[in-house]
Design goal:
This protein is mainly α. It folds into 2 domains: about 5-100, Rna Polymerase Sigma Factor, Chain: A; about 125-205, Winged helix-like DNA-binding domain superfamily/Winged helix DNA-binding domain (Arc Repressor Mutant, subunit A, Orthogonal Bundle). About 70% of the residues lie in helices and about 5% in strands. The protein has 9 helices and 2 strands; from the N terminus they run ββααααααααα. It has helices at about 20-25, 30-55, 55-70, 85-100, 110-140, 145-155, 160-170, 175-190, 195-205, and strands at about 5, 10. It has a two-stranded antiparallel ribbon with strand order 1-2. A hairpin with a 4-residue loop joins β1 and β2 (about 10). α1 (about 20-25) packs across α2 (about 30-55) and α2 crosses α8 (about 175-190). The N and C termini lie far apart (about 45 Å). The model is unreliable at about 1-10 and about 110-125 (pLDDT under 50).
Length: about 210
């Protein structure tokens, strides 16, 4: 890793660092090292998922699961070999699992009738779930700094590209990518088995179109 010594601290050239060096820094809770790994692999993983699933929302959620798991388990997970091979293998496994879930299942007539009966009553539950998801979304936004929040909202709510955000806010594209990666960590911390990242971001697409 390229390190330039200053009088008071070390300035790390994350852009030039090897994946293995960034992983080592992540183990010391270096969020900037994770941001650089996110910058390198988020888009390729997303494209891999969407190529086989042809579902942008699901592909993005799978990518986020993989990348954020890399950060959350940084102290306990030891990755041998190339990080890229490991990440692509993770996505391949998730694609296989997702496609299994997509295989149509034969539903007995009795079960189908029961599902029809429950449809109306489930609408109220869906509304409650959406309300809860919106609260989680707002709470996560409130935990961000004003600038990071604006970057996230421009990306998710207004569909700005990272380049457009950078130009609008007079930032580098790399800074925008770092803000987005940090924001996603905050969102992940707010989610649970009841409200997932995918649900939150689908909610954004509904509320802010």
């Amino acid at each position: 890793m390229t390190i330039l010594r200053s009088k008071t601290n070390y300035v790390v050239d994350y852009y030039q660092a090897l994946d293995s060096e960034l992983l080592a820094s992540c183990k010391h809770d270096d969020i900037k090292a994770f941001n650089e790994l996110f910058r390198r692999y988020a888009t390729p993983l997303y494209k891999q998922g969407n190529r086989y699933l042809v579902n942008p929302e699901v592909a993005e959620e799978l990518m986020l699961d993989i990348m954020l798991s890399l950060w959350e388990k940084r102290h306990v997970r030891d990755i041998s070999g190339e990080l890229s091979a490991y990440l692509y293998r993770c996505m391949r496994n998730k694609i296989v699992d997702q496609r299994r879930k997509m295989v149509p299942k034969t539903i007995p007539i009795e079960e189908g009738l029961l599902l029809d009966t429950l449809t109306e009553s489930s609408k109220g539950d869906d509304r409650i779930m959406c309300d809860d998801a919106e609260k989680v979304y707002i709470q996560a936004l409130e935990k961000m700094s004003p600038q990071r929040r604006k970057v996230f909202q421009m990306s998710r709510e207004q569909a700005f590209t990272y380049k457009e955000i950078a130009q609008e806010m007079n930032l580098s594209v790399n800074t925008v990518e770092n803000y987005m990666a940090s924001a996603l960590i905050i969102f992940r911390a707010q989610t649970n088995a009841y409200i997932t990242l995918g649900m939150l971001f689908m909610l954004v697409s509904v509320l802010y179109i």
